[in-house]
Amino acid sequence: MIRISKSSVNRLVFMGLVSLVLPLLVPSRALAQGAGQRRAVANQEDGPIFSEYRGVQIGMSADEARKKLGHLKDKGDTQDFFVFSDNETAQVVYDAATHKVVTVSVDFMHGAADVPVAKSVIGSDIEAKADGSMYKMVRYAKAGYWVSYSKTAGDSPLTSVTIQKIQ
User: Fold this and answer.
1) What would the pLDDT profile of 91-150 be if each residue is shown by its tens digit?
2) 53 occurs within a structural domain
3) Is 28 left (phi over 0), alpha (psi -120 to 50) or beta?
4) N or C: more exposed end of the chain, with fewer CB within 10 A?
5) d(C-alpha 138, C-alpha 122), whole Å
6) Separation between Cα atoms, residue 149 and residue 126, nearest integer Å
7) For residue 38, what is the enclosing H or E element?
8) Domain, as residue range, for 41
């Protein structure tokens, strides 16, 4: 039997909510970005820089993803949660019909080893907002997915990197 502390459950719930809400914010941001968004689309011709996480890619089978990631904490038909440390977790979402990976979302809490910077994920630096937070999404139509980078503000930031199949 797997035992998960209350703080770990709360952290997983928070990360799940962030992963679900973040894509909902993208359409309004894309409209507001105008020319900036067009520049991001132009960069997609080079292809994605961040195309996998620990060997897991969009389109991979659920069994392959689980084997590559290990550290499975919560298994489901369409979604799995992985915990690598107190500071690094991942959520992988599968297509219900094909059981292929459609989303990989990774959260790095303050203190995690090897937290990626925006340039290593989306190919460019991101200007921080007034509060210190950062967000950018780049669509790679040819590859069939988008990649986003998000970092919260504050002394203990949460950095989220998401790869998701374009529906």
Assistant:
1) 999 999 999 999 999 999 999 989 999 999 999 999 999 999 999 999 999 999 999 999
2) yes
3) alpha
4) N
5) 7
6) 9
7) helix 35-43
8) 6-165
